[in-house]
Amino acid sequence: MAAGAAAFSLREVLDAFRRCVTEQREVLLEPYLSGWRGLIRFLQSLGAVFSFISKDAVAKVALLEGHCSGSQRQQYVSLQSMVRHELAAGRAALRARPDSGCRTVLRLHRALRWLQLFLEGLRSGESRTSVLCTDAYNASLAAHHPWVIRKAATVAFCALPSRDAFLEIMNVGTAEEAVAMLGEAVPYIDDVYGITQELFAEHKLLDLP
């Protein structure tokens, strides 16, 4: 484990994603980004293996934070308000903006699917971590990465620590307590992922360049 692993807390991620979804089923961006900052600490605690994902996530979170604190911040309170605001300029204008909130969230959304699958795999503990991580990656991010990155990722995953080491990184006590909290946290992440997927599919945003 890399130095700084103690900075990660699964409880913080759980609390952030728990706060994400309103009664109206809107996804609030402030807790969404807070949850992502926690997930980035998780990735960074594992060292260079995940740097190709964590560095990209850091850049995307910073970009969204800029939208959320900028002159149009009232339009970036939730995913739904962001989509309405950015689509109002027209689909062509949105596709031409590499820094759009929609494009940025889409990149994070794909990575969230990988983490969602991987964390669920750690909870159930049915395979070695290298297998869990590779399967989760192949079912999510791999389709969006060039062959060189896919190959490097698959090789890197072979060097992952044991499940017990991952559960220790969660910083919530015993392995049993970590598994129990994963059981709490993963459904909240699932919910945020599902709402985002439905929203982006509805507005045909899942293939933004």
UniProtKB/TrEMBL annotation:
Pfam families reported for this sequence: GLTP
Q: Where in the cell is it found?
A: Cell membrane; Cytoplasm, Cytosol; Endosome membrane; Golgi apparatus, trans-Golgi network membrane
Catalytic activity reads:
N-(hexadecanoyl)-sphing-4-enine-1-phosphate(in) = N-(hexadecanoyl)-sphing-4-enine-1-phosphate(out); N-(9Z-octadecenoyl)-sphing-4-enine-1-phosphate(in) = N-(9Z-octadecenoyl)-sphing-4-enine-1-phosphate(out)
Task: Give Gene Ontology CC terms.
Answer: cytosol; endosome membrane; Golgi apparatus; nuclear outer membrane; plasma membrane
Q: Can you give the residue ranges of the Glycolipid transfer protein domain?
A: 28-171
Q: Where would one find the signal peptide in this protein?
A: none
For the keyword Cell membrane, the answer is: yes
Gene Ontology biological-process annotations: negative regulation of interleukin-1 beta production
GO MF, any single term: ceramide 1-phosphate binding
InterPro entries tied to this protein: GLTP_sf, Glycolipid_transfer_prot_dom
Q: What is its main location?
A: membrane
What membrane topology does this protein have?
Peripheral membrane protein
Could you tell me the keywords of this UniProt record? Answer: Cell membrane, Cytoplasm, Endosome, Golgi apparatus, Lipid transport, Lipid-binding, Membrane, Nucleus, Transport
Q: Describe the family membership recorded for this protein in Swiss-Prot or TrEMBL.
A: Belongs to the GLTP family.
Instruction: Please name the PANTHER family in this protein's record.
Output: CERAMIDE-1-PHOSPHATE TRANSFER PROTEIN, GLYCOLIPID TRANSFER PROTEIN-RELATED
Q: What is this protein called?
A: Ceramide-1-phosphate transfer protein
- The scientific name of the source species is Picathartes gymnocephalus
